Amino acid sequence: MVKVFYGKKGTGKTKHMLESANTLVRESNGVVVYIDDSNELLVKLSHRIRFINILDYPVYGSDAFLGFICGVASQNYDIETIFIDGLTYIVHQDADSLKKFFDGIAKISAEHNADFYISINGDEANIPPFIQPYV
Q1: pTM of the predicted model over 0.90
Q2: Which of 30, 56, 68, 75 is at 20 to 30 A from 111, Cα to Cα?
Q3: Domains of the chain, earliest start first
Q4: What does the pLDDT look like over 52-84, one tens digit per residue?
Q5: In what side-by-side order are the strands of the sheet with 115-121?
Q6: Roughly how many angstroms between the first and final C-alpha of the chain, as a whole number?
Q7: Pairing of strands 31-36, 2-7
Q8: Whether the Cβ atoms of residue 14 and residue 28 lie closer than 8 Å to each other
């Protein structure tokens, strides 16, 4: 499953993702991963969540980030859920250019039974068509 929280900055996407991650990790037998581009949320997340600050790694663009996620998923078959907070900030690309990335995430999700929760900042009236099924 892929779920996208799409909306303008300040609409509560991160808060909802934090609450979802903390709830899921309590109910999950598997591993929950949270990827962000700062350490701000580290103290708000359960210590059972594997937190990754993407800025600690030389990952530039959506192709490299998809490869990074493949590496994370392949190193631990117990990963059930991956949260990606602020995707367009992480990859430094606008949402319209992320079709290949979403195709890859959907494939990982289907083949490895991993759920993805992704937040994207943007105008809800202009959600790219390939992202709409996930919102």
Answers
A1: yes
A2: 56
A3: 2-134 (3.40.50.300)
A4: 999 999 999 999 999 999 999 999 889 999 999
A5: 2-7, 115-121, 79-84, 31-36, 50-53
A6: 11
A7: unpaired
A8: no
